[in-house]
Structures are given as structure tokens and as C-alpha cells.
Amino acid sequence: MSQKTILVVEDEQPIREMLAFNLGRAGYRVKAAADGREARAAIADGFPDIVLMDWMLPDVSGLELTRQLKRDPHMREIPIIMVTARAEEDDRVTGLDVGADDYIVKPFSARELLARIRAALRRAPGGDDDVVAALDLKLDAASHEVTVRGVEVALGPTEYRLLEFFMLHPDRVYGRTQLLDRVWGGNVYVEERTVDVHIRRLRKALTPFGYDKLIRTVRGVGYRFSAAAR
User: Residue 33: helix, strand or coil by DSSP?
Assistant: First the structure.
């Protein structure tokens, strides 16, 4: 299983450190934020695979931050689990209604939290158990292999990440800046033309199989991946 990144948004330092310790011991990569501002900075630095969101934050409520993230077309697919002491039924309903994928009440056991995380990741696009496919092109996230009719496609790490992103988000146009944010991450300075270089490499690797045409250039906008384009 490829290592997943969890963003913990929690203003109480002891709880934040406890979560980070348990999640790290379970094999996850952990980012931590004490408020909404730090959470947004952490997301800009590289999208997490899942967010654990406290309700009570010092600058913006976790409820409002969840609502904002779920309204953002670039972040709405990131699973969010509300982790809060608010246990009333109305609170649970409100949390789920604003877009939280799950809701867990403090105090909780580490086993229950990890089970909830695994379930949310399985439901998410590109979940741990998913093999993503487009026609005969298959990407196995667990083994990091890309094949066409059983023949492996040799890809560099950046080309693999590009293809994975495209296959998880088909039939949508993404500009170069968006691809830089989603594939390279916000903490890496890369010129926009670098995207074109890696797109050409990816197409070249897919050409022997006739699948280079799945990646279409949308003039003046960016790129779109579509199985219907072949």
C-alpha cells in the first residue's frame, strides 16, 4: 500500500501530538495544523489524502472550513472526518450536511479512528483497494504499476503521478497551474512549461499502445484525459 498523507487539524496540542503519534505508528504520513490558516497552508503545500477536522478552532470553525473545502472543486474529493467533542445528534447531522464524510466523537479509541480512516480512504477516488482503468489501460495504486493488456508501461515517478491524477479525474480540463498544485505540490517551484515536458514524456510512453491520444490538449486552457478521445 502506498503511504497516505493525513492532515490533522486540531488546536489542542496534546491531542494533536497524540493523533500524529498514533497515525505515524500506523504507517501514515502526518501533517498537523492548529487552526484554519495553518490547515490551508498545509493543503497548499501538497494535498492530503484525508483530513481529520476538529470543530472548535481559534480562527474559523472546523464546520466552516469543511464547508469551504467541499465547495472548492480542487479539494472537494478529499475525505474529511470531523473529530469533535460535540456529541449531540443535531451536531452530527450538521457536520455531515456541510460535507463531512464521517463524524467521530471524542473520546474515541485509536482502533476505531483507524478503522474509520481506512473506510474513508477505500471510498475515496484512488482508494487503497482500487485499480483505476480506462479501456485496457490500468493503474494499480498498491503496486505502482501501469499496464496495457498485461504489458507494463515504463513511467518515471512524475509521469506516474500525472497519469494517476488524470485517470482519477477524467473528462475535466486542468490548466498547467492546477496540475502543478495537484501533482507537484505547492512547496515546489516548477515553471509551467515543465508540465508540457512531462506531458510529452507521458504521451511518448503511451504511444506504443495507442493510448497517447487519451491526453488531449485544450488550446489556451490546459489538458484533458478522456477515454472517449482515442
Answer: strand
